[in-house]
Amino acid sequence: MVAIGYARVSTGDQDLSLQLDALSAAGCKRVFRDHASGTLTDRPGLAQTVSYAREGDTVIVWKLDRLGRSMKHLLETVAELQDKGVGFRSLTENIDTTTPGGRLVFHLFGALAQFERDLIKERTRAGLVAAAARGRRGGRQSVITPEKLEKAKHHIAAGLTVREAAARIKVGKTALYNILNQHSKIDGSN
């Protein structure tokens, strides 16, 4: 059974010393490191940590936010470790999944994270329904205002191509093609 440390700082000018000292004091024989933002998916040190860990080992971090980009990512990473028979410990939060109490706390985190995701979905759905009831629809605002559309139609009627008309009114040709197609369907001229 080996204690394996994982340390991460977000930028190159930050120092790992505090984490490394804490991991060493916790008995870590091997420490993997990353100098990367927590939002990045490519963290070679974390990948090495998970790959190196064997059944019976424990991965130790100084603080929970050093391991996961989000609660979901944190839970997935710990679940991946548990599937390998590897424990997890966070020194600052005093969570240890090798103990029954630590497993309980971690399962509560998972349940709370799922509850939060469900609430967000529910609020989003309710907001979309309410907006639709008021006649609003979601999505991005069109970059082509009615005035720009009229100018574009005038340019096209004067012999310019859609691409040239789009350049004159400073919009993308695809956006202009799309709105022209929508208006021709509405007008019944298509």
From TrEMBL:
Indicate yes or no for the key word DNA-binding: yes
Stored SMART domains: Resolvase (SM00857)
Going by the UniProt record, its keywords in alphabetical order are:
DNA integration, DNA recombination, DNA-binding
Outline the extent of the Resolvase/invertase-type recombinase catalytic domain: 2-135
User: What PANTHER family does this protein map onto?
Assistant: DNA-INVERTASE FROM LAMBDOID PROPHAGE (PTHR30461), SERINE RECOMBINASE PINE-RELATED (PTHR30461:SF2)
Q: Which SUPFAM superfamilies match?
A: Homeodomain-like, Resolvase-like
Instruction: Write down the InterPro entries for this protein, in alphabetical order.
Output: Homeodomain-like_sf, Recombinase_CS, Resolv_N, Resolvase-like_N_sf, SSR_resolvase
Q: Which family does it belong to?
A: Belongs to the site-specific recombinase resolvase family.
The reply to whether DNA-binding figures as a keyword in the UniProt entry is yes
Could you tell me which species this protein originates from?
Bosea eneae
Q: What is this protein called?
A: Recombinase family protein
Which lineage do the record's taxonomy fields give for this organism?
Bacteria, Pseudomonadati, Pseudomonadota, Alphaproteobacteria, Hyphomicrobiales
Q: Which residues form the active site?
A: 10
A single Pfam family, by name?
Answer: Resolvase
